[in-house]
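Reviewer 2 asked us to include a model.

Predict the structure of this chain.
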Amino acid sequence: MLSRNAEGLYWMGRYLERAGHLSRLLLLQIETLVDRPIREIDYGWKRIYGQLGRAPLVGGLEPSGTDDIALADSYTLADDLTFERANPDSVWNCLAAGRENARQMRHCISAEMWSSLNLMWLRVRGVQLQDVWRDSPEDFYIDTVREIETFWGVTDTTMYRDESWHFTRLGRHLERAQLVSSLLLAHLASESGSGLDGGASDSEWISLLRACQAFDAYTRTYGFEIRPERVLDVLIIAPRAPRTLCRALDICSDALDGIDPGPVAAADAAARQAARQLGTRLGADWQRAGDPEATLGEMLAQCQDLHHRIMTAFVDYPADEIPTA
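Predicted model (structure tokens):
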């Protein structure tokens, strides 16, 4: 497969997974604006910005007083995360980048995939926050999440199972692994510095489950009593939960197994070996983890390392290392 095709499909998967994830977080955050205490609203914004490693355009992330929200108003923050062109991780930019990669790879994806993605883009491309904020801003995020999930359903049912399929899965699930790792780290960091008695409330742990589409998995496993250690287990290692961190890493390894060897044998072998070890190592490390934040931080670093290995093996390999006939 041409490296530019592999790269385009890989990034298409990553950008669209990122857009869906951020849309779910913003939907949950907008819902809290109705009746939640200011400190919990502040907690939610800090968790989102902490995951992105980004500071708000206005204000900071540290508490400024007992009754005042530390951040700028929610309208400004939602605009920064949704439509801000200068924010590379905004929902709008992720959708634009995902759609552009799909446009360049139309010969590698199904017509139904392109149609589904293009219709979504036509809906959002000219929208600004003031257009959706005045009535029901959560509807915008509900529609975006639903359309991205529809795109992935169309992908699963129409895409030919060749290397294009495997690179799309690889990008999507490696992005998911990094997003879940960074979200959990941001949640734990926000909990320890939240100023809320007892740390995060049950509603914050429930919103974390909902953001990762794991609330049903949790209640089927443990019932409705919320315990933080159980939430982390369901998001990381639960064997029957569909979107755990371990499962995302296993899918990355499976996707790499479906891809022909890259042109540089050493780089290809290193990427495959790293992918095979990640899920197994995480499961073993988590069972004996004394410090969840340290374990998740190490896993996030290893996911980022796997990304660089994949790029080196299939996209950015040195031309002088390609064997000649």
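The chain is about 70% helix and 0% strand. Confidence is low (pLDDT under 50) at residues 63-71. We have added this to the supplementary material.
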